[in-house]
Design brief:
Layout lengths: L1 H16 L10 E5 L5 E6 L18 H5 L3 H12 L7 E4 L5 H9 L4 E4 L10 H13 L3 E4 L14
Parallel strand pairs: 3-4, 4-5
Antiparallel strand pairs: 1-2, 1-3
């Protein structure tokens, strides 16, 4: 039964990621409570009110200054609404960077369902390794989601 819920919520995270205006990577996130109720969603994008029409802000390296990741956007959306996240699950069709990992731990999320990271990735590998270490130390359970186990592969493309 868990796998069915995992697929549903991961598919929703992918769908929500498509709302992102980022042209190189669209990532969504769904945070779910213990009874499979959706607590918060987010996608990678600019902060509220920031002018995302300025093309230069979407190009590297500027995009790293202007873009908030899906995981933190979901956490911030919950905070704005006063929704508690302690004991929740978080679904991300990518793997959290260290900044997002710290946020996940700080709000009390207890389970991460994500794609297994490539710790040798030249850009993100070091952050992935550190996030894995943090999750282990803080007892955040990780369940790997493999899109190839599903007929329709909606994983985010680079």
């Amino acid at each position: 039964m868990t796998a069915n819920w995992d697929k549903r919520f991961m598919d929703l995270a992918v769908h929500i990621g498509n709302w992102s205006k980022d042209s190189s990577r669209k990532v969504g996130c769904v945070i779910v409570g213990p009874h499979n109720e959706i607590r918060a969603t987010g996608y990678n994008g600019f902060p509220r009110g920031a002018d995302d029409g300025q093309i230069e802000r979407h190009a590297r390296p500027q995009k790293y200054l202007w873009t908030e990741h899906a995981e933190r956007n979901a956490i911030f959306n919950a905070a704005r609404s006063g929704i508690p996240l302690e004991g929740c699950r978080i679904y991300v069709p990518w793997f959290p960077c260290m900044d997002c990992a710290r946020a996940i731990v700080q709000v009390g999320i207890k389970q991460l369902i994500a794609v297994r990271p490539d710790e040798n990735d030249p850009q993100w590998g070091e952050a992935f390794s550190a996030a894995l270490e943090l999750f282990k130390e803080t007892n955040v359970e990780i369940r790997w989601f493999d899109f190839s186990d599903h007929v329709d592969d909606p994983s985010p493309k680079n």
